[in-house]
Write a structure and sequence with these properties.
This protein has 2 helices and 6 strands, in the order βαββαβββ. The protein is α/β, with parallel strands linked by helices. It has one domain: Macrophage Migration Inhibitory Factor. It has a 4-stranded mixed sheet with strand order 2-1-3-4, with helices on one face. α1 runs antiparallel to α2.
Length: 114
């Protein structure tokens, strides 16, 4: 159930065609969960700024049941941040990554919870 949600002011045309598949593969390796459970969502063309500037920026949210926490989030931040920088060309100092470790009972899937 890991998810990667990227809110950005980049135009849709600047999001590579293969971004969703590459992001799914990266998240599967980074979080250590099967690709079939990973959701990637990109919201482009937003009116947004970072530090008062409307240069390319993003707000990134990573959620998962487990596999997140103080002992691993620095590694996640480095690798997910590098991926976003390399694929979307957004400087790493132009986005924050928020991590949210969810309780299994708070995530619904296929008519039940985890």
């Amino acid at each position: 159930m890991p998810s990667l949600i990227i809110n950005t002011n980049l135009p849709r045309a600047k999001i590579p065609q293969d971004f969703l598949s590459k992001a799914t593969e990266m998240m599967s390796k980074q979080i250590g969960k099967p690709s079939k459970y990973i959701t990637i969502c990109v919201h482009p063309d937003l009116i947004m700024s970072h530090g008062g500037s409307d240069d390319p920026c993003a707000s990134v949210h990573v959620t998962s049941i487990g596999k997140l926490g103080p002992d691993v989030n620095k590694d996640h931040s480095a690798n997910i941040g590098s991926f976003i920088h390399e694929t979307l060309k957004i400087p790493m100092d132009r986005f924050y990554i928020q991590f949210n470790d969810l309780l299994p009972s708070n995530v619904g899937y296929n008519g039940t919870t985890f």
